């Protein structure tokens, strides 16, 4: 059973999704993709970044955010939305095995209606340089996943 879940809302770059899938396999996590996707998940670039591990990804896809919420029924306090505009670092929240780490697209971030629905659950990975607007999606998801794993005692 998955420890916690990584959710990508409207990802745009297949290589990032492939890399995040590889991390999900390494940590035995479920990866959830919420459409629209800017690529086909069978695309060569996804498989290339995920290498031969892509076939092991515990993958679910949803047509939209509402379908995800209706089907998964996550508790509001178990959803953590990552945004560069958030002020609460991931290190200041309690992540548990039934949590969802939610990331938006590479160029647009999370849609406003998603952020507005769970405004108190916005978190960030700190960045100390004014020269960086954002972290690479795959890097951010991996950093967040390892912090979540640390919080649940590496089990």
Helix content: 25-40%
According to CATH, what is the class?
A: Alpha Beta
Biggest sheet character: 6 strands, parallel
Distance between the termini: 12 Å
Number of strands: 6
CATH superfamily: SPOUT methyltransferase, trefoil knot domain
What structural class results from the helix and strand content?
Answer: alpha/beta
CATH topology: Alpha/beta knot
From the spread of the alpha carbons, the general shape counts as: globular
Strand content: 15-25%
**Lateral strand order in the biggest sheet:** 3-2-1-5-4-6
Question: How many distinct helices?
Answer: 5
Question: Architecture in CATH?
Answer: 3-Layer(aba) Sandwich
Number of domains: 1
Q: On the 0-100 scale, what is the average pLDDT?
A: 92
